[in-house]
Amino acid sequence: MLAARYHVYDSAVLDAPIEEAWRELRDIVTLLPIVFGDGVKDYRYVDGGSAETIPSRFEFTLHPSGDKAVEEVVARSETEHSVTYRLLGQVLGIEGYIATYRLRRITTEPGKTFLEWPREFGVAPGQEPEKVVPSVAALTVKEIVAIKEHFAQRRRSV
């Protein structure tokens, strides 16, 4: 039986030039507290991973649930300003999660960057797609808003 796959796509314009945004977002472990805030704890690379190593595993604990996620960066492109990563196992009712976030230069507005973040996942056995899929979609919207606000706050404080 073929399992259903779900796709979520989000994007935003960040109030930062691409070089500044990439310095912060190229390292996924730096990205975690930006997108989750206090909702993530104990985030770190594991098994000898680092921001400079591909592939590279990392883990984090979601709060308040206490669920632990183990993910792996499988690709990064310094020229395309992109990071691809995948979930190992299950968390939040999903499995087979893979995502790539990309930054694009906005040529008409040099101080701004376009962020796009397509994601694909399956619903874990025993979970209800009609609950899991909207929950994941809502979470991804919050993550994009958090990144956008992160750079907007930095700009206001300069």
The overall average pLDDT, rounded, is 93
Order of helices and strands: EHHEEEEEEEH
Sheet bearing the most strands, described?
8 strands, antiparallel
Beta-strand fraction estimate: 35-45%
Structural class: alpha+beta
Q: Report the strand count.
A: 8
The span between the termini is 55 Å
Please tell me how large the radius of gyration is: 16 Å
Number of separate helices: 3
What is the 3D form? globular
Helix residue percentage: 25-40%
Q: Pick out the low-confidence regions.
A: none
Jot down its keywords.
8-stranded antiparallel β-sheet, 3 helices, alpha+beta, 158 residues
Compose a concise summary of this entry.
This protein is α+β, with helices and mostly antiparallel strands and 158 residues long. Helices cover 29% and strands 41% of the residues.
